[in-house]
Amino acid sequence: MTYSDSHELPRVTLVTVTYNAASVFDDFWQSLSKQVDVEWALIVVDNASVDKTSAKLALIERDPRVTVVRSPINTGAAEGNNIGVRLAMARADPYIILCNNDIVFDSNILTGLIRAKQRLSPGAVSPVLVFGDNRSATWFEMGSFSTLFGVRCVHHSSFDALPSQSYLTSYAPTTFLLFDREVIESVGELDADYFAYWEDADYVWRARKKGYKLWVNPHTVVVHKVSQSSGGFGSLYSNHQYYKNQIRFARKHFGRVVCGYTVATSLLRIGARWALRRDPLPLTKAKMLGLQAGILALRG
């Protein structure tokens, strides 16, 4: 029986991690506050923000549906999510969403995803994700893992018109990803050694290895202000973390040879972008230092 066959509203717990998110959090909270026909709870783990995030969280935690955890240190996205998931699993809700807070969505996003998930096999389902600064452009509608030019998570925008029903994907980010409770019970926690970037790829890879499927529902759309809380995707921090954790993911799931190939292709890509003046020197250094940190972490 689905909730549409009964008088009970569906229940879901959302987990989000904040770090200096004051510029984006209001839109996220307003979107969540407008949800209809659903009983939701929100767990926010704040990773020692130094902006006005704490003040904003103090206001919303007056809502009995909200739990705020304030970490004295920045534990990273992966461990921050783990802290939230532990609290979420203590609840009885059948669905858990891992999500960013640099997002905007309409009032039916939760019911739409839950309805879609109830018609699918156990696993997880994502909405379509569009860019915050260009909502006609798709950031994610399907994804896969590729080793052609080193291990990468590839976002595809391959449909002239989206399918009418939910469809399978090999990869989906945790920008707004709804899991059946049993998936998290089976897969366990996120790998906290990633800190930020690639932790979601690692998690969905492990879920798929357990036999769970990932889906995208084309009738639900979330606006993503891509990487705004970490300085933007072109920031030094984002690129350092991306290249560092790319190496960890490649070695962990694909072995030594593919990891070495990933290092080589990443070096070539970084060098080519600098030589062609597509990346400034500080960004090139951040990427190189990220690669170096990833290699050194393997040796440690």
Automatic annotation (TrEMBL):
Give the keywords, sorted: Glycosyltransferase, Transferase
Q: Which residues form the Glycosyltransferase 2-like domain?
A: 14-185
InterPro entries in the cross-refs: Glyco_trans_2-like, Nucleotide-diphossugar_trans
Record's SUPFAM superfamilies?
Answer: Nucleotide-diphospho-sugar transferases
GO molecular function list: glycosyltransferase activity
What family name appears in the similarity comment?
Belongs to the glycosyltransferase 2 family.
Q: Which PANTHER family match?
A: GALACTOFURANOSYLTRANSFERASE GLFT2, RHAMNOSYLTRANSFERASE WBBL
Q: What is this protein called?
A: Glycosyltransferase 2-like domain-containing protein
Instruction: Specify the species.
Output: Sphingomonas aerolata
Q: What is the lineage of its organism?
A: Bacteria, Pseudomonadati, Pseudomonadota, Alphaproteobacteria, Sphingomonadales
